[in-house]
């Protein structure tokens, strides 16, 4: 039986803009019963809900700071109380910090929010919904965890971001195995590992050799296809998998030479700004507002 989003309940974190909004658009186009958008930006949530409405899919929105466990628990409890057990859960929300060496970063401004939002939040969110998703058998479910190629390769100037995505990948694939081995394979987990995506979060980066900066709609289309098929993992473009394989077989110093001088991975963040004007990304602005 082919899994379809038609008549399904979909929940997207970070769903007000960027790739999150594109995932929501996909769900509406494929006639989902409902789409719930979680985001920290109320104005963008309203704008996105308005744009997605009127196409036969019910749109729900909620302002949620996924870095706060109490917010996640309250929002998840509301969904479950309303009978909206997700058929598709997309852990998309994320932030990026970069362009500096680790010892110059700020633990409170950089490390804590990056780990909470990119790594810990998907764990909390999935934990709140997964028991209900499991017991809602035999209806098939999907969990899409949006990681990054940064979680497969070390890269200077993005150590904390890389750490958050390494953690996400390890956790996500472990949960996949737990579901399969416990007889709950009707809930399938897909981990998506793209290279740089042109959402504004990585403005200024240079794609490594044969690794173009992905357009958001292309990245979302590939993640969506993998999620529907229930694939354990999707890396894109193909050079991400090649680099991981080479790193696995080459001695560390040999891989350093290949990564640096051939693929130019290690210099890809040298001109990172986060925006073309050098200002903070919208995600960074949100974090500043949260702390104020």
TrEMBL record:
The keyword Ribonucleoprotein does not apply. Pfam families: adh_short (PF00106). InterPro entries: NAD(P)-bd_dom_sf, Sc_DH/Rdtase_CS, SDR_fam. SUPFAM superfamilies: NAD(P)-binding Rossmann-fold domains. Signal peptide: none annotated. Keywords: Oxidoreductase. GO terms for molecular function: oxidoreductase activity, acting on the CH-OH group of donors, NAD or NADP as acceptor. PANTHER family: PKSB, RETINOL DEHYDROGENASE 10. Belongs to the short-chain dehydrogenases/reductases (SDR) family. This is SDR family NAD(P)-dependent oxidoreductase.
């Amino acid at each position: 039986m082919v899994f379809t989003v038609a008549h399904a309940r979909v929940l997207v974190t970070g769903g007000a803009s960027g790739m999150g909004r594109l995932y929501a658009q996909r769900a509406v186009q494929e006639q989902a019963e409902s789409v719930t958008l979680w985001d920290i930006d109320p104005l963008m949530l309203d704008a996105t809900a308005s744009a997605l409405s009127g196409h036969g899919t019910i749109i729900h929105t909620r302002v949620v700071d996924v870095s706060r466990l109490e917010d996640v628990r309250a929002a998840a409890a509301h969904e479950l109380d309303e009978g909206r057990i997700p058929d598709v859960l997309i852990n998309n929300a994320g932030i990026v910090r970069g362009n500096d060496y680790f010892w110059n970063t700020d633990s409170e401004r950089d490390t804590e929010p990056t780990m909470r939002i990119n790594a810990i939040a998907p764990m909390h969110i999935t934990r709140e919904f997964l028991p209900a998703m499991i017991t809602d058998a035999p209806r098939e479910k999907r969990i899409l965890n949006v990681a990054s190629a940064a979680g497969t390769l070390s890269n200077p100037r993005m150590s904390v971001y890389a750490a958050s995505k390494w953690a996400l990948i390890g956790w996500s694939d472990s949960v996949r195995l737990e579901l399969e081995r416990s007889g709950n394979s009707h809930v399938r987990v897909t981990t998506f590992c793209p290279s740089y995506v042109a959402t504004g979060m990585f403005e200024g980066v240079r794609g490594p050799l044969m690794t173009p900066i992905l357009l958001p709609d292309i990245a979302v289309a590939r993640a969506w296809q993998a999620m529907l098929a229930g694939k354990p993992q999707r890396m894109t473009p193909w050079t991400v998998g090649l680099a991981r394989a080479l790193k696995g077989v080459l001695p560390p110093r040999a891989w350093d030479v290949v990564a640096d001088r051939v693929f130019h991975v290690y210099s890809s963040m040298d001109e990172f700004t986060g925006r073309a004007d050098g200002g903070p990304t919208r995600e960074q602005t949100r974090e500043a507002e949260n702390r104020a």
